[in-house]
Each structure stands twice: as C-alpha cells, then as structure tokens.
Amino acid sequence: MNTIKNIQDQILKLKKEHDICILAHAYQSQDIWEIADFVGDSYGLSQQAAKSHQKTVLLCGVRFMAETVKILSPEKKVLLSHPQAGCPMAQQISPAKLAALKETYPGYTVAAYINTTSELKTLCDVCVTSSSAVKIIRNLENQNILFIPDCNLGAWIARQVPEKNLQLVTGGCPAHASVHKTDVEQMRCLYPDAKLLVHPECLPEVTDQADYVGSTTGIMEYAKNSSAKSFIIGTENSIVQHLQFSCPDRQFYALSKDCVCSNMKLTTLMDVYHCVQGTGGEEIVLSDDVMTKARRCIDTMLTLG
Ligand code: 13P
Ligand code: SF4
C-alpha cells in the first residue's frame, strides 16, 4: 500500500529527473510543503520565480500565482497544480471596468493587488502583495493612487500611508471578509492572553483590533519570534495547522472556522504526483503581448518592493 511518505519520495525523484522546481504557497497542505523547493507568500513566490534555474516550474497554489511565474520566466514551462484553482478576487474587475475607472480618475497611478488576472495587469502601473504594499505605495511618486481590487487591503494600506490619497473600489477576498469583529470579541473572551495576528485582507473592523497585521509569511514569522504562548490567527486556516506543527509548545486558534479558501484546498499530493509524472496540472500559456505588458507592473513591484 502507498503511504504519504513513499508518494513524496517518488515526487522528489521524478522532479529531479524532469528538472522541475516546485513552488508552494503557504496555504498548501503540510504534505506539499515537505516536497516543495520553496514555500512562501505571494511576494516570496514572485522572487523565487525569477531566480529558479530548473526548466519547468510547478506552482502549487492558484492561477494568478502561476501566471506571475510564467510572466517572470517566459522561457520556462509553467504548470498550475490544479486547473480549477483560481482566486475569485482576481475576477472581480474586468478590463472594461478598469478602463472606465481610469476615465473617472485621470492622472491616478493604478496599483493592483497581485491577486488579479494577467490581462488586467496589462492596464496597471504597479502590482503589490500584502507584504510589499505599504513600502511600494509609500515609494510611488504620484500622490493619487487608484487601488484595485481589494478595498480591505486598500483601507489598511491607506491607514499606514496617510500621506497618499488612495481611491478604493468594492472588492475583496470572500474568505477573509467573512470574518467579523464579533469573531474577535468571542475569541478574545475565550483566550484573553492570546495575540491576534491577521491578514490585511480582513475587514478594517478586524485589522483595527489586531496585535499584528501582515502577509501569510509575516504572520508565521511573527508567531515564531514572539515570546507569547498563544495566538489567534486571522487568515486561511491552513496557517493555524502549519504553526501548530512548527511550534508544538504553543497554542494556535483559528479566529473563524469560516476562513477557508476552497481554491487553495483543491491541490492534493496526488495532483503534485501527476504533475511531476507529466499527466496532470495545466500548462500556463499567455500571449507575448500580455506577458510583455503585464511584466512591467510586476517588475516595478520587484524593484520598489
Ligand atoms: P500572501 O501574499 O500573504 O501570501 O497572500 C496571498 C493570498 O491570496 C492571501 O489570501
Ligand atoms: Fe484568493 Fe482569498 Fe483564496 Fe487568497 S484566500 S487565494 S485572496 S480567495
């Protein structure tokens, strides 16, 4: 009978034979973390995509992440671990809607959260991720910035960079936006000594009450380096499990049982196995025009971030 361990061993052997680099987002499961070359937040994944030397990159995460890898490494074969794994936020603004917004706000710099389609990125000036957003927005020359599509992340950035005028639009992550201040009240009541660590995709009524707001990697680093013994985690609930696993002497609690990303959960270890075997995943194909134009705003992000 196959075990997780021997499937992992076969993946490691096949990925070496076929010269494949595996990049996994932090929301992937522990069995996938263990066979990945790199695990991290969206910014870390973008940096690794530009650095990896293998001919093929397998991205375990969601579609916009695999598209970012392809744009940064057009000469490589890039596979998305599960063809149906998309980020619903990436679809919230169409190119036509953005064109109309640009007419309403002429002269504004358009900053897009990286959770957007490549097509939309061709119409934007710069991308940001949750870990790089504050620094990048602060470093932009323009005072006026149109920020799309996550108004919760946008509101958090606006509070950190009050000298900029950020115009926000309605949009955001359904999983993080499902968490409310009543969840905070309930969990603070149950665990009064715990630190509250949340992702900036959460509603302002949640981020306002946090001890720390940051990316998935930022949350994990904060918890590992803190002297506190217990933590309430306000991001996708896989991070609670990863922290429990890496810091068994501390307690981690999910801020809400509903903060679950069904798209991130689609990829299984067997999907990874089929990808490295050559029978699974989806190869990312983008037109040269889209790649060239979308790359500008990703490169600006990597330079400013
Ligand atoms: P990070 O950049 O923090 O990993 O966020 C990506 C994401 O999709 C969070 O929901
Ligand atoms: Fe998109 Fe939210 Fe899932 Fe992140 S957690 S991939 S923002 S739906």
Lay out the secondary structure.
Layout: H1 4-17, E1 20-25, H2 30-33, E2 38-40, H3 42-51, E3 56-60, H4 63-72, E4 77-80, H5 95-104, E5 109-113, H6 118-121, E6 126-128, H7 133-139, E7 144-148, H8 151-160, E8 165-168, H9 181-190, E9 195-198, H10 204-207, E10 212-213, H11 216-225, E11 230-234, H12 238-246, E12 251-254, H13 269-277, E13 282-283, H14 288-304
Parallel strand pairs: 1-2, 1-3, 3-4, 5-6, 5-7, 7-8, 9-10, 9-11, 11-12
Antiparallel strand pairs: 4-13
Helix pairs in contact: 1-13, 3-4, 4-14
The structure holds 1,3-dihydroxyacetonephosphate and iron/sulfur cluster.
Descriptive overview:
It contains 14 helices and 13 strands. The chain is α/β, with parallel strands linked by helices and about 300 residues long. The chain has a five-stranded mixed beta sheet with strand order 2-1-3-4-13, sandwiched between helices. It has a four-stranded parallel beta sheet with strand order 6-5-7-8. The protein is globular. Iron/sulfur cluster binds near residues 62, 175, 176 and 261.
Approximate helicity band: 40-55%
Low-pLDDT parts are: none
**Strand percentage, roughly?**
15-25%
C-alpha termini separation:
47 Å
Largest sheet: 5 strands, mixed
Helix/sheet category: alpha/beta
Query: Averaging pLDDT over every residue, what do you get?
Result: 97
Entry keywords:
305 residues; alpha/beta; four-stranded parallel sheet; 14 helices; binds 1,3-dihydroxyacetonephosphate; binds iron/sulfur cluster
